[in-house]
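Can't paste images in this forum, so I'm doing it all in text. The chain is below; anyone willing to post the predicted structure tokens underneath?
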Amino acid sequence: MIKFKYYWITVFVVLLDQATKLRVRHTMELWESFSVWGDFFRINYVTNYGGAFSLSIGDASLNRVFFMVATLIAMFLLVILILKTDKLMPAIAYWMILGGAIGNLIDRIAYGYVIDFLDFDFFDFIISRWPVFNIADSAVTIGVIILVIDLIFFSPPDNQPRSIKTQGI
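Text version of the structure:
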């Protein structure tokens, strides 16, 4: 059964995410940063009270509640999608996204914020420096990319016109 065959992906993402955050939290001071590969890749310990790209809807308490509720709703929807899919790539993507959601939810429950530490400079591609992120964020992003690739390259086109059934005609 493909639906639950890949649950280990979620477990792996959550464990790796929490282990790396724990390591950063216990070996670095907040705002401490060090170079891994010049200025291109740094480990930079920061906290994020908002959502992706530090999106905020208000103060830290409001952010915490809003993003926890939004995450729980997203997790519920992901479980529904997992139950409905019979395709490999979407199943893997949903399990990855679920792992990322759980990883960041754990932070919000435990600390009131998300721990971020991966800091890349993508050569002023869109912005001068990419926002700092974590393993959970990466899993969500990779999951979404897998869904897009599946949609574009592996989903059969819907060439049949949709008809509207009318009653009494």
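The first helix runs from residue 2 to 5. The helical segments are 2-5, 7-27, 60-84, 88-111, 135-154.
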